[in-house]
User: What shape does this take?
Amino acid sequence: MKNRIILCTLVLLPSFYVKASDSLSVNKNIRRINLIISSKTKKIDPAPLSFQFQAWVTHLFRRKTFFYIVAASSKEMIAKAQRILDKEHAMIGNIWFDSHGHFAKRKSLFEIGEDEFNYQNMSDTSHTKWLAGLSKYCDEFTKAGIGSCYAGATYSAAAVEAFPARRMNGDSLMMSLSHLLNRATVYASESWVMSGPGVFSNSYALSGHPGKRKFKDKVFEPVWQKLGVWNCYEGSTGYFHTVNTVSLDKRAAIQCLPENYISKGKHAKCQKKHLEGLKTGRYNLAAMYQ
Assistant: This one.
C-alpha cells in the first residue's frame, strides 16, 4: 500500500508542476497594453500639456498597445481605464502616472486630477477605492511608474522655521502602490521628473532639473544630490533598490537606461555647480504654510 501511494505521488507531481508553469506562462503571455495617466488641470500648465501632447502623438502610431487617459479625478480615470482594458481584453503591462510633486508638502505624492495620493492616505480604502479598481488588471508582471518629482524620495526635508525635519517616505508610497496594484513593480525618482521633448524615445527626457530660481534654494539640496536617481520596488519579492535612470520607450514601456543620468560628465558638472551655488532665501516659504 505504501509503495502505491509513493508511485501515485510521483505520477501526479509532474502534472502539478506543469500546471503551475502553465499558469506562469499564461500570466506572462497574456495580452497587455500600456497606459499613461495624466491629470486634467483647470489652469494652463505647460508641463502636463507637453506630456499629454507627446502621448497623443505617440498613440497615433501605437493604437493597439499604447493608450493615454487625461482625468480630473481617480473616479474618472478608472471609468476610462476599465472601458479601454475591457474592450481590448487586456491587462496592464506598463502604467505611468504623470503628475506634479509638491516639495512644500514635505512628503512624496502623486495626483490624479483633484485626488492626491501619499504614504499616509494610501491605507485609507475609501480614498483609494477608485485607484484600487486597477488591481484586477495588474499582477507581478505589471510595471508602474510614478512620474512626479520626489515620488521616490527617501531623504528628509530639512527643518525650516516652524517645520521640523520630515522624512519624505517615497519608499512607503511605492510599496503601498505596489500592494494596491496586485504586487506590481513600482518605479519612482528621488529627484525631479521632467517632460522635455522626446519623452517617448527611451532617452533622458524625464531627467534633468527645472530652471526657476526658487529651485536653487538651500532647501532643495537633497534633491540636487539625488539628481537622476530612481528607485524600484518589486512587489513580488519585496526588494527595494536603486536602479539606473528610468525612461519611457515608443510603446510607453518603462525602461532603465544603460547609464545613469549623472554619469554623463556634463550632467555631473551641472550638479556640482548648482550644489555649490545654492542659497537660502530664494524659495518662498509661504508655500509651506498653505
